[in-house]
Amino acid sequence: MKRYGEAEKFLADTIGLDPEVMGPRVIKNEVDSLMQDLGTDDVERCVRELSLSEEKLGTFIEKIVVPETWFFRDKECFKFLKRYARDVVSGKGSCPVRVLSAPCSTGEEPYSIAITLCEAGFAPTDILIDAVDISRKALKIARGAEYGRASFRGETKYYEDRYFAPAGDGLRVNPEIAGLVHYHHANILGKGFFTDREPYHIIFCKNLLIYLNPEARRTLLAGLKGLLVDGGILFTGHSELASFLQKGFEAVAHPRSFACVKSEPAHRADTPSLPSVPTGRKRPRQPAPARLAEVSSPTRMPRTARRRPPSRSMSSSLAVRPGPKQSFKAF
Ligand SMILES: C[S@@+](CC[C@H](N)C(=O)[O-])C[C@H]1O[C@@H](n2cnc3c(N)ncnc32)[C@H](O)[C@@H]1O
Asked: Which of 91, 175, 209, 308 measures 20 to 30 Å from 29, CA to CA?
């Protein structure tokens, strides 16, 4: 095995990273820097240290992951989200709408989702957004909700005027929007990731799959499928869509939204379903699908009585994931 192979394998097993995609020098440079800190030139020792210390591993991962993101990235995806949320989810008794943004990086994506759902007419009490990332540094920025100009790359003026306030040289997300997003530190590829959660109506999983090795891709696809209601929508990155289309998803008929609908039922017996959305493919007529309200929420609570489920603490969301090989909580 080549000198850094041990470290590459450890990272592949832990967070699914494909060293080829990351570039040959990224992992090497970080391992070299860690070895220097530890005063060793033994890669195996380095890997041992990482596997024994959540803190060291966290710091190491921070240096390797790619946190790049911005508000309303892939604008067609948010146009479709607005239409979908308004026409399909609302009015079908499926409130609150449950959305997962994973990975969420520094928060621009989940806040864009929150704004879009407000624009679609949802009351804040009818929106539940969970947002997940492995990077504590990214999550700290996300919780702070303050952004420089680099986070606004498209035509965002309309939203800036309505949902942000000036903060230094940048903008801060208004508290009513910021309060709609619940952040969690977690490894999406960790064993049992979020399997104790009620399935989501909408999942955003953009720009993660591209960095993963084939096995991690399979794990991620299967995990997300189990976390989505039947007929639910998954938004992904433009070069990632094809992987989902091979695994029981169908592209929706909205160009450049990179959205697909879960067309194959999950193995979870308790997974509720959503009404169908138009996809690019002609399908034979089928009996009307069950309304979400009938399967997931038999008695729609009056607006005033609806309560957001208690948000799990970061430590409890991590606690579901210790694998047999690891000696710490996070993965
Ligand atoms: C390029 S950003 C994507 C952010 C956003 N979804 C978007 O498309 O703009 C990739 C994020 O994935 C996170 N990440 C990488 N591996 C992860 C894992 N196994 N579990 C959770 N987050 C992960 C990184 O920390 C980084 O913030």
From this structure: 209
